[in-house]
Specification:
221 residues, mainly alpha, flat
């Protein structure tokens, strides 16, 4: 019990929360950019533009079948060889954005495919251009159906930030490693703290998704 009391000193807890802030920062920025990029990629796959859609599809399949660790290594260690040098945090954001964009693109394409074809036809018959119909009619309906899958993928991204410790990203797991590296008796307390903090963070995301889904259900009703 004393190990837990000592491990959870004010200094250690502050250090853990500094790592949690980095985790949050990297996750939020990666989610923001990956959502935008994946939406564009998903729409590009859906509209089936000759050659272009096939190229986008190949890129998505390629990235989806690569481990995130490899993409992290490439971003941080390989890009400097061609003159692109990124600090740890930007490199982590770029790697996770690339990986997450590919994962989300297929979810978004599937969501768009789930919208009845008649919705597009009705929108076009009312005078909307294809872009307007996609933006105003199709995508809002698709996103409503995709909320659970999107949030699940966002939660996976938050947990995947721990992989960036391999390139020394000073996030939550890295800070915990520093703490129990100073005293082996803090190992179990730090693992418990990591489990609690990751659970609270991700469970909060799940609750937010439920609230959004519930409100949208009321709107549809």
């Amino acid at each position: 019990m004393q190990n837990f009391i000592d491990a959870y000193s004010a200094i250690n807890l502050r250090y853990l929360f500094e790592g949690l802030w980095i985790t949050t920062e990297v996750s939020v920025v990666s989610i923001f950019f990956s959502f935008i990029i994946s939406t564009l990629m998903g729409v590009a796959r859906y509209v089936n533009i000759k050659y272009f859609s096939a190229i986008i599809g190949f890129i998505i399949d390629l990235i989806r079948n690569l481990p995130l660790l490899l993409i992290l290594f490439f971003t941080y260690f390989a890009l400097p060889n061609i003159g692109v040098r990124l600090a740890v945090i930007p490199a982590s954001i770029v790697a996770m954005t690339v990986f997450e964009s590919a994962m989300l693109a297929e979810i978004i394409r599937s969501g768009i495919n789930a919208v009845p074809v008649g919705q597009m036809e009705a929108a076009r018959s009312n005078g909307l251009t294809y872009v307007q119909a996609m933006t105003v009619v199709i995508l809002p309906q698709a996103f409503k159906a995709m909320i659970p899958a999107l949030v699940s993928q966002f939660i996976s991204l938050v947990k995947d930030t721990s992989l960036a410790t391999i390139i020394l990203l000073p996030e939550l797991t890295y800070h915990a490693q520093i703490i129990y590296g100073q005293d082996v008796n803090y190992t179990i307390p730090m693992f418990v703290a990591l489990a609690v903090l990751y659970f609270v963070f991700n469970y909060a995301l799940s609750l937010i998704s439920r609230v959004i889904d519930r409100r949208m259900s009321r709107t549809r009703a």
